[in-house]
Amino acid sequence: MKSTYNKLIISALAIFSLTACDNDDDTNVVNPPVDANKEYEYIRILTTDGTSNALTQIKPADGSVINLEAKYPNASLYATATGRYAAVLYNSQNLVEFFDTGLEYHGDHVDVKGTPKFAAITGDGNKPTHYKTKGDESMVFNDGDGTLSIAKEADFHVSGAKMQVINAGLEPHHGAMVKFDNGNYGVTILDNASSLPGPHGVKIINASGAEVVASTLPTSRIHGNATDGTNALFGAEGGILVVTQNEEQRLIPNPEGFGTVRAGTILYAAEARKFLAYTNLKGVYTVDLAGNKMNPLFESTDIMQCKLDKEGENLLILLLDGTLKVYDLETGKLDREGKVIAATLATEIYKPVIEATDDFAYIALPALGEVHQILLSDFTKINKIKVSAQPTKIAILGYETNESH
């Protein structure tokens, strides 16, 4: 959803509902005028803590904070594709949970269906590590046994529900997966006969775990992946492994001078319809599928974090010296830059982490116990929000809209 659509100035007219949703009452909601310096009403920020079980939800529109508890410290957080839930992964404890904002999107408005809480469903895979989401489905690769755990949101609040396990006969490894538009999955494989570090390739399986297409392009050191639904890209030794749902596989070579450096992070910017590859040893590159090459976007060894905004329209690069760079991915040009936080030592264990909406960047600062909300149109406007002792993970949930029912 484009912000220009949602942020039209609303006059003082009351907007009456013409259709009904479950549990709606007869109260007509008046949507307030939009403040350009204010976040959307239905955006939520979630953080976990490195040393405690603290789980904090922020509503940036009014600055309110809800303090909850995760099961264990330092849980990993990932927003689901629908925006309503966050996947909460406890790798060492073999547990996956889902946090529910209580927000339900209906295309032209949001309903508040409940209070923020954990959903009923859980996953108990062995070392759940790599998370992906598509539509209403969540997927987790379990490194400890090479299985996938799958869940549909319709089952999230079913009492006693467990994530479905797909066993594709994979060896345990630090793996990854994608889901294609045709319903099949691409999963990394480990070849025990190889003397090279794995994973060593990608095969395609169906929803039952049966092999549809074997790996046809052996490689090594696969790490990081993204898909547009038709093409799946994996960082690998020597370049980017491209696997299509039509069973084709090829390698896009690394730029000259990369040597043994591998792009360990692959991103897909949905709004801009572009793939990006990132390594902290070289920088950020756009991936040209048609030209079969990687092109430099920003080359530096001082990048601390590299993240897409919520809609996949802009790329935010946070440097160790505290500088934030924002790239417009449609043009590939630097849109704005400036120093927004203090410098961070490269040796710090828990470094600041960043996420962004269309209008704001959110940086969790473990050393300060705060989340800083930075207005992207004016980097001098920073709102500091206390969350917990050491916030180490952050996710953006909800919807970039003010429309209610």
Task: Write a brief structural summary.
The chain is an all-beta fold and 405 residues long. The chain is 1% helix and 44% strand.
Explain the overall architecture.
- It is a single chain.
- The chain is mainly beta and 405 residues long.
- It has a domain of 280 residues: YVTN repeat-like/Quinoprotein amine dehydrogenase (Methylamine Dehydrogenase, Chain H, 7 Propeller).
- The chain contains one helix and 34 strands.
- The longest helix has 4 residues.
- The radius of gyration is 21 Å and the shape is globular.
- The N terminus is likely disordered.
- This is DUF4394 domain-containing protein.
- Keywords: Signal.
Write the layout of secondary structure elements.
Blueprint: H1 3-6, E1 43-49, E2 54-59, E3 64-69, E4 76-79, E5 85-90, E6 95-100, E7 103-105, E8 110-112, E9 117-118, E10 128-134, E11 137-142, E12 147-152, E13 164-166, E14 177-179, E15 185-189, E16 201-205, E17 211-213, E18 225-227, E19 231-236, E20 239-244, E21 249-253, E22 265-269, E23 274-279, E24 283-288, E25 293-299, E26 303-308, E27 314-319, E28 323-328, E29 333-339, E30 353-356, E31 360-365, E32 370-375, E33 382-386, E34 391-398
